[in-house]
Amino acid sequence: MSVSKTDRQTGKVILARAGAGLLALLVGLAVCYGLWRGMLALPPGLVAAWALIATALIPLASWAAWYFGHTEVRGWLSGVDKAIDKMMGTATEVATLRGQIRQQDPPQLPEVRLPEIIEIRPQLARGREVIDL
């Protein structure tokens, strides 16, 4: 049983994604461990003050996230709106042009005369006639 080239490529992609996921997990764990060790090295009063400040800043962080997200979405929707306006403008121009073309008289095409039709009927060979094809 042979393994096709696409199966090998699919296997490599799966291994690459699994490796990237494992690497991201290890980096995340290393950062969390470093923060944990850093917090243990600080005096308890400073850690409590940091926790109080971080808790007090949650509403400000929430408002900032809402504001910047809202601004980003408005910009994205503005871009979509401009694109739709351009597409509708182009569609209107095309429809107008088609309407103008249909309103005009159709061009007069030259009259084409066909040659006289010659009727060809199959005939059977009689006697010893030779028919060259």
Identify the notable features of this structure and list them briefly.
3 helices; mainly alpha; 72% helix; 133 residues
- Radius of gyration (Å): 40 Å
Detail the poorly predicted runs. none
- Supply the helix-strand structural class: mainly alpha
Q: Helix fraction?
A: over 70%
Which term fits the overall shape?
elongated
User: What sequence of helices (H) and strands (E) makes up the elements?
Assistant: HHH
In angstroms, what separates the terminal alpha carbons?
A: 57 Å
Work out the oligomeric state of the chains in this entry. single chain
Report on the biggest sheet: none
Query: In percent, how much strand structure appears in the residues?
Result: under 5%
Enumerate how many helices there are, as a single number: 3
Give the overall pLDDT as a whole number: 83
Number of strands: 0
Verbal overview:
Among the domains are: about 10-45; about 55-100. The chain is about 70% helix and about 0% strand. It has three helices and no strands. The protein has helices spanning about 5-40, 45-55, 60-105. The chain is elongated and about 120 Å long. It starts with a helix and ends in a 30-residue tail after the last helix.
What is the element layout, followed by pairings?
Layout: H1 5-41, H2 44-56, H3 58-103
How would you summarize what this structure contains?
The chain contains three helices and no strands.
